[in-house]
Amino acid sequence: MVRSSSSFSQPVLAWVACSALGCGAMPAAANPAPRADMLEDIVITASRGKQRVFDSAATLSVITEQELDRAVVPSLAEMLRDVPGVQISDSGQPGMSRIRIRGEESRRTAILINSQEVTDHHEIGTPLSVHPAMVERIEVVRGSGAVLYGSRALSGVVNFLTRKGGTEPLQATVSGGYDSATEGYNGFTSLFGNVQGFEYRLAWAKSDYDDRSTPEGSMDNTSYDNESQYLFAGKSFGDHRLEYTYEDYQSSSHTYVEEEVKSTFPLTDFYIEVPKRDRDKHGLFYNWAIDNSWLQSLEANAYHQQSDRHFYTQVETVWYLRDTNSKSDLTTDGALLQLNFQPLGNHQLLAGIQYLDDETDQTRHVDTFSWTPTTPSGIEVIQDKASIETWAGYVLDQWQINDQLTMTAGLRQYFVDGDLKYTDRPGLSQRNLDDDNELIGTAGLVWDYSDDIRLRANVSQGYVYPSLLQLATGAYAGSSFVHPDPNLDPETSINYEMGMRLQKNNLVLDATAFYTESKDYIHH
Description:
It is a single chain. By secondary structure, the protein is mainly beta. It has a single domain (3-523), classed as Maltoporin, Chain A, CATH 2.40.170. The chain is built from five helices and 32 strands. The chain is globular, with a radius of gyration of 24 Å. The N and C termini lie close together (6 Å).
């Protein structure tokens, strides 16, 4: 049964330091040269606006276009494996890697593509569903980003910024690779360019990997394949810019289950397969560079995303054999409007409104054959339809107090409403799920100790509203069914951190110490 602890505390203390003389934020497979200018990178994720890493109150890592181009890795997860504070896991599903930040579960990390969230509502978190060759830049924020990016950003934010147009009317890229460990291959091709200010890009990629080979032999059920398509179009009209993106990602995989798990009582065998885990998205972006003495710019974006999933499990216990086919469609509609102000010379203020609507339609087909009277044989078909609608308003002010001290402070107000629209499970009926409204905040200071040193400190609150699986649909876990609980409280946290950045000649140091307290974490 899904439950929420009334008071759950998870303190964490960590220290991370990197030097351009001997420490990088890239995996060995990529083998990049450490960069002495890594703190000079301009990022957009930390404050939803352009800012130098050296001057940010947040804990940041950036993987640049040049580093991505040099890397020889089969997936984005490998690019992130050696980023401080980031762990990679696939939950036994090869080709469907997930990101954990600072030890938190993957479902507490916000995954963004072009600053738009990819939602999933499964317990093990959002898989990375974009090909590495389609990504131009990766920005990682460690520590809560919930004030700017909403629920799921409790432990941090990972923003994948995709490639856009070119510099010539017609340009092309073709690449491929072969992996002897899996007898697998991957291929990528892209056409892109710039025709009289109209930027475009068309891209296609395909990967197909067999079971992994190890010194002990082949690992069964570790094969996977995926295919993706990408389209970008953009054009500026004076102070206005309009962009459109289309992403299509289709994947399937087996799931590796350890032998000791298969034989854990009452199990005698256990098999999982994911025949379909597809994502289709249309995104629209608009920017107006007003740049007057008070209002600097207006930004807006909207997207429609469809995720189709099919999970198959076969469970054999000492009492019965059960096949379960779960098919679900997750439809996501999101929109954002943000204004960037400079009301006073030493203040930079942004204010925004964000909307997100997730609706899932799930059908489970459960076929049970029992050889004991404790469990009846038969076929059961269950359908659920549920949604979560979220409105939020946020504001963030960056105040240059004096020549050496900068303060950043922000607030976000959530209004969340859940609804179980349809179910034919016995004992349940259509009803409103637990709604919520919550105000959270963040505050940070950056002290310019010298031209080479920045000292920083911040405190930020995190907030995660329960998922549709936890509130409404539930899920099979091995031989048992995990029931939903519509009365779950949101997960919350407070993160405290301080750090120092130093860059002098070829020496770069970026050190952070943090402490996190959490409450009402949900387990099953």
